[in-house]
Design a protein that fits this description.
- 21% of the residues lie in helices and 33% in strands.
- It is globular, with a radius of gyration of 15 Å.
- The termini are far apart.
- It has helices at residues 51-63, 129-135, 141-153, and strands at residues 7-16, 26-31, 38-39, 42-44, 68-81, 95-105, 121-127.
- The chain is of the alpha+beta class and 159 residues long.
- It has three helices and seven strands; from the N terminus they run E-E-E-E-H-E-E-E-H-H.
- The strands form two sheets. Strands 4-1-6-5 form a four-stranded mixed sheet.
């Protein structure tokens, strides 16, 4: 592996359903054309964008809305490497370093997965925490657990 290749700066959104706090359900999207690839919306930070600006742009691109309330931001960046079978074909990066945000979808928000030129998700669902960790892409589960546990400990997610 080429150690000169860097991590791509990225944002990820832990989205609570509009029914929160009455029910604690998390948004998962299924990557278009990839079997069993359920994950949180995420995407790269462009140019001089702040992480918050990138978050809102990515939400609009991936789920068709930026109509959310930002509840909290995870204080650290979490890095991961692409699977070795993909690392030479995805960008000039060995992986991504992500800034996670906790957001709540507003009641009036409409999710439209096909609103962007090149849709990234083909379907979505809201799941309980236990379902999340059964359904989410395996390589992302550790980061998801870390972030959700932090938001719960800080009182940002109330079960």
């Amino acid at each position: 592996m080429n150690q000169n290749r860097k991590y791509r700066p990225n944002v990820a959104a832990v989205i609570l359903s509009p029914n929160y706090p009455n029910e604690v359900k998390y948004f998962l999207g299924k990557r278009k054309g990839v079997r069993r690839a359920w994950q949180f919306p995420q995407g790269g930070i462009d140019g001089d964008e702040t992480p918050t600006e990138a978050l809102l742009r990515e939400l609009e691109e991936e789920i068709g809305t930026r109509n959310v309330d930002i509840i909290a931001e995870y204080p650290e960046w979490i890095s991961y490497e692409f699977p070795s079978s993909k690392s030479d074909t995805i960008y000039p990066f060995i992986g991504q370093t992500q800034k996670y945000f906790l957001v709540k979808l507003k009641e009036e928000a409409d999710i439209a997965l096909d609103s962007y030129i090149k849709p990234e998700f083909e379907e979505f669902t809201f799941v309980s925490e236990s379902e999340l960790f059964k359904k989410a892409l395996y390589m992302k589960r550790r980061a998801y657990r870390r972030v959700i546990d932090y938001f719960k400990k800080e009182g940002k997610i109330i079960c």
